[in-house]
Fold each of these.
Amino acid sequence: MHVHKNHPSIKAIIAYALLKSANNVPFHATLQSLIGAAGLESQNHVGFIFSERLINMPVQVVPHMYRMLADEIKWAIDENEPYHFTHFLLISRTYRLSAEEEAEMQATAPQTKRQRNSAPISSSGGGVHSFHHEDDLIQKAASFTLDYGLTNVQPREKDSFGLDQGGRLMLIPAEKLPQLVAETAQVYAVPQ
């Protein structure tokens, strides 16, 4: 984001991330120090990871995508290209279910043997869920995560079909990328 800080698309992403994080003071302050006006002149470099899997693409491709990203960053550094990142910023999608929708989803979901033997899942109702499975692992690696509402969304009526969508900002320290790659490879391995 630092190398291309003057490109209109990067300026828009920076403005969007700063706007959406404004209500979370620690996260906003961190983003200001990394990608704000003064941050873009610092030695900290933030890479923006854009990852929007196609709907029918299986999650098992994710470990390979992140491994290839880590390899390409390493090769670029070896060739003295400006890829010495201190952090990675990801913007992802979420959805929110009402308490009734969440209860209905749990009631109709098939239970595996492990779920039957474990404690029942508690639901606070209206929980925020990730669109992509890998976001749960990314969120664990992130130093900051922020769920937010989308700016131009029409309110959904009680009986209407669809989901209440939102967004999620995640900031990952660069040193956690190899760990994230290894964890995605373990969790989302291709079934044998």
Amino acid sequence: MKHVIDESEMHERYKSEIFDVMENEPYARFLGIKLVKISEGKAVAKLNVKDYMLNSHGTVHGAIIFAIADYVFASACNSYGKTAVGLSTTINYMKAGKKGSCLQATAIEEKKNHKLGWYKVEIESDEGLIATMEAVAYRKSQYFVPTED
């Protein structure tokens, strides 16, 4: 009989290790994105907008907004210690982010099964909601935390 892993238990048992793995994601660290919180299927991160993150019009570049959205999506879908990768994303930009503002992105899992996970992401700044993302993750069979004692 195949052993079934309780993912809630995995999250609770390895929460700090999972947080550390996600917090040390190289590109997020390069940009200065800070992981604030990770829980089962949910993640929150912040980023202080620097001058080099602006576009030609003096507002936050769409790639920066996408980067923080993608990062919290990755953190949320990997929050059980099971390796998950992005399959598809759709982002909607609603308002320009401003120079000197703080972006906060929140990813929330809507549903998951053994192979896929569906997520909603909101990106806010000092001016309110600036973008949303819908994302789908492919959940691989391996875990990046121990599964046996």
Amino acid sequence: MHDRGWWCLAALSGAVTVMAGAFAAHALQGQLPERLLGAFETGVRYQAWHTLAMLGVLAWRASRPLRGQLLVLGLWTAGMGLFSGSLYLLALSGLGALGMVTPFGGVLMIAGWLALAVCVLRGRPDGQSESGMA
């Protein structure tokens, strides 16, 4: 299966999303200040949306592999790790310095969306060069 690693990564991200959401709803409710609980839930929400987006790109890639799709997946993965991961750690540890990492993750996720737009507009099959020759 092509892109097996990416599919597994998306599946694991989905599992972590559900576990983190359940953890926030059941174990953290009433245990954290609202601000930190809100930060944790924001991390869950962004991870969920980007995991779904990854699944969409992977499904699209299965039928039409284009240059740039792997870059999109990589940017979103790194962005989720930095954005959501830093929010999870911030909420659980209370270390405010971790909040400095969060915007870098956001920038990577935005870059992934912009890379997706470029990928769609250029639309060259994976492995095809600028001149149209593989």
Amino acid sequence: MTTSEKTKITVQVVVDKTLEKVWESWIKPKHIVNWYFASPDWHCPKSENDLQPGGNFVFRMEAKDGSFGFDFGGVYQEVKKQELITYIMDDGRAARIEFSELPDGILIKETFEAESTNSVEIQRGGWQAIVDNFKSYTESL
């Protein structure tokens, strides 16, 4: 018997801001374009976000030199304000984002199913860089 259990990767960060500010920075397109990229030579020039069950999102990621770009998108499954977001990516993989209050800030824990092209380490590093960018951006507000 074979199993189709997918590898899951988790990244997390603690942000020293209120839950309200963290939530706003995570969901509003005017903020997303300032942090949704994995390295300084990339950017997110466009963001669309319909945060509701059945709603779509599309974040455009591009190399700043124009050499490459792609849309990262999906459909939201579950949304609990300031607590939980689940979605299915356009390629069928599932993801879950949890927001929790801690004494030193807001913990954001994102778990997603790995894809088969890149190593788990590369995927974890890229997604961790994005949440680290989120922390830096949001704490600067």
